[in-house]
Predict the 3D structure of the following.
Amino acid sequence: MSTEPILRVALPVPLSRLFDYRPPAGGALPAVGARVRVPFGRRRLTGLVMSHAAGSELPPERLKRAEAVLDERALLDDDALWLVQFAADYYHHPVGESVATALPAVLRQGEALHPTATVCRATADGGNADIDALERRAPKQAELLRHLLDAGDDGVLHAQLDDMLANWRRAYAALRDKGLATSEERRASDRRPPVELDATPGPDLNDAQRDAVDAVRAADGFGAFVLDGVTGSGKTEVYLHLIADCIARGEQALVLVPEIGLTPQLVARFRERLGVDPELLHSGLTDTARLAAWRRARSGQATVVVGTRSAVFVPLACPGLVVVDEEHDPSFKQQDGLRYSARDLAIARAKRAGVPAVLGSATPTLEMLKHCRDDNYRHLRLPARAGGAEAPVIRLVDTVRHAADDGLSDPVRQAMRSHLDAGGQVLVFLNRRGFAPTLICSACGHVAGCRRCDARLTVHASAGQLRCHHCGAQRPLDPHCEECGEAVRPLGAGTERLEDTLRAAFPARTVTRIDSDSVQRRGAMDDALAAATAGSAEILVGTQMLSKGHHFPQLTLVCVVNADQGLFGTDFRADERMAQSIIQVAGRAGREQRRGEVLIQTAFPAHPFWRRLLDGGYVGVSADALAEREATHWPPFSRLALIRASAHRRQDAHAFLVVARGLAAGLGGDRLDVLGPVDAVMARKAGRYRAQLLLRSGDRAALHTALRALRPALEDDPAARRVRWSVDVDPIELY
Ligand code: ADP
Ligand code: ZN
């Protein structure tokens, strides 16, 4: 009888269980947290050892051996492993797929943590060579040798030489034959070129900022702090002080931000103020760069790690602080696979590590506000703008009284003119990209629709295309109706059309558009933001990409072109979302000396939402919305999980959800509401029919108990074979 331990391995397959393997023959037992390569059916998979066990339920003859150990030591430490397991349990997602989400792509694929690379360096003879003599005979060889001598013992990667010196290989062969240069395989080094930076002192904190910093400093171990500060109130200054403390203690700070677009300004500020180069972790990096950043975070070498959503999983050797900037931003919630909230995992992680979590926003979510009300989290308020800037004045423009020709009403045009003449910059906000959202036939009224989705096609005039914003389908823009052959015309305006309107209305001004179409080219976003920050872009037009977190010093006027899109939303979060998006974009105006102004075009100025927002600001809207959610039993006063299913045939999606409904009702008893199944709001997307079942409970434990049994039961149900399905815990989109 063997006493060999069993490895319990997480594998990237859509099943909520671990798989048992015997350790590889000979050699050391792979550590918990290390990767192994295992046979799985006819495939080979890379998995992570989650634990060791004394035995297995499988009969010994069916237990296979792992084939190889990929990490000498644990890749994920206890805390990182705990977080992945927690995420898998909480979001009821297969643990192996959760592990895959948490790891950088190259590690997921089984590559080494420290890949080796070929490095070229000068030999001792190379160091003593007469370079000037060499220069006259073989200039290329001399040039290469100089590069190698500059790099010293570190040498230069072959991959880098490809960029530095065209056709360097012939010169290298000659140097090598003379014994002046050599190459060797080396492990990737984590050393970064040293940066010599001095931390520059920032402004003295005002009283509210000081109180916030002191409150976090006073936390002994974990504490969650909602930093609720109006736009421009100096939240970033508060983070900077706390991060500086953290660095001084020799600990690491993890800062999560919603989008890469926000990082350049933030990183520049961190670098200048803290005197360290923050480590960046986001999807815009190459796989190699991302792995290197991940390693430096894991080893503790990176003191400040700034990253987007998935950075919440990065292992940290000695964490001291977690910051989530713009906590309300929906991009913190992953919308496929492991549907996690990076904000909520950040809090869980901070709690486990015993360090403070600071969640900043000018428009905190109702979830966070309720936690504050219940005294789970501390509410830290920064009620006024720092540095003396005043809050912007917000006014409504009634588009029924003032026709908005081509999107812009007269009062808006006039206000733009006067702000531009006074040297101010103007931001025109429209949350709809493309030229026009609809293409309609002027004769028969036919509207161009997507063949695979229940959706209209958006006109993209400069590309000469019709595009579906839901499935990505596109086709050429035809000036004739596909039904009757008469002339078609674009109806309504997107940012592309608005850009044309603005150029025509303000021919002497520079107009810069920022949306996901205009920033496709690498670096385009950085360029546009630099122009916007410097003020050389006089009129900015764009989508919510422009409204987030940016600081444009010259900006004094914000115009919201079509605010009515969100006014009649069916989602219970409609008011909260709408207030967040208006307050965030308004917050770009007048952040320095000149007071800002905000004009909002609406056809419904009497809608009660506007009174609440204009009189009470976000505080007013959120207080009303909280009361309403309490009365109607929606989150944060209840907990939701959404089960989605899609299939080629509508009845298959529904049949699966009917099974799910039966199981859920049996498991949840009367503490669980089971609502549906119903068609999704967009019932057909990319050729698949979509439906959903909503589970709601006032008792979080009851919901999770039901889901824990539901998930494996659904995995085994025959109805599951005809659908794609998923579980979304704490969904933020209900369709
Ligand atoms: P937020 O992150 O809340 O939008 P920031 O930290 O970016 O606000 O601060 C907004 C502006 O106010 C910045 O230009 C910042 O340098 C300035 N500022 C912040 N705190 C102070 C302070 N205590 N005194 C003077 N200026 C400040
Ligand atoms: Zn489509």
Notes: The first strand starts at residue 6 and ends at 10. The chain has five domains: 6-108, 116-187, 207-387, 389-435+493-629, 639-729. The first helix runs from residue 78 to 90. The radius of gyration is 29 Å.
